[in-house]
């Protein structure tokens, strides 16, 4: 079924919705826990320990800042700056999304959007994330795939967004990216000419500032708000 017409102008029309995975679809705690486990193991090799409360402080500082690498910050605090890649590689061994990580609002929202819009996944993830999305029924709704390990580019690199746009045959003005980070999702998508919906959960700031909330075209606090947000972006009253 083609996208339904909207009451806004041609430029307002949305044909394609791009979705991040960590945050909007799955609970980001899965990656947080994988990174903590990896940091503890590497620290233990040198006879050191990682306090979870201190780790959470570093994690929340990076969430609040919406800039800078969490892996670099963790390596510098608990290991050494040179251990960043080791930390990243070790964390990837444990980074999996169990079925319980799927947010409850995801499948109902995708059912509502399916048929009205083309849907894409645009995510900085390993290729195996598609297996989890298939297992949990998310992949049934996805038309376009842009997973960083497959595309060879990570957000905010324009190439990963452009890959999804090319595959969908949609112009940037008629697409919206939905993500939970300002640095990689909102700012990266804006540079390509996409509109944005910021899902304020997961790696979004614990306490978003008015300035941060003003960066995306629309900010929402659950995926259940997305259908209404998309209507707003198309000029619906």
UniProtKB/TrEMBL annotation:
- Tell me if Secreted is a UniProt keyword of this record: no
Q: Which UniProt keywords apply?
A: Hydrolase, Magnesium
Enumerate the InterPro entries for this protein.
Answer: HAD-like_hydrolase, HAD-like_sf, HAD-SF_hydro_IA, HAD_sf
A Pfam family: Hydrolase
For activity, the cofactor(s) needed are: Mg(2+)
Kindly list the GO molecular function terms attached to this UniProt entry: hydrolase activity
Which superkingdom, per the lineage?
Bacteria
Q: What biological processes does GO assign it?
A: small molecule metabolic process
Q: What is this protein called?
A: HAD family hydrolase
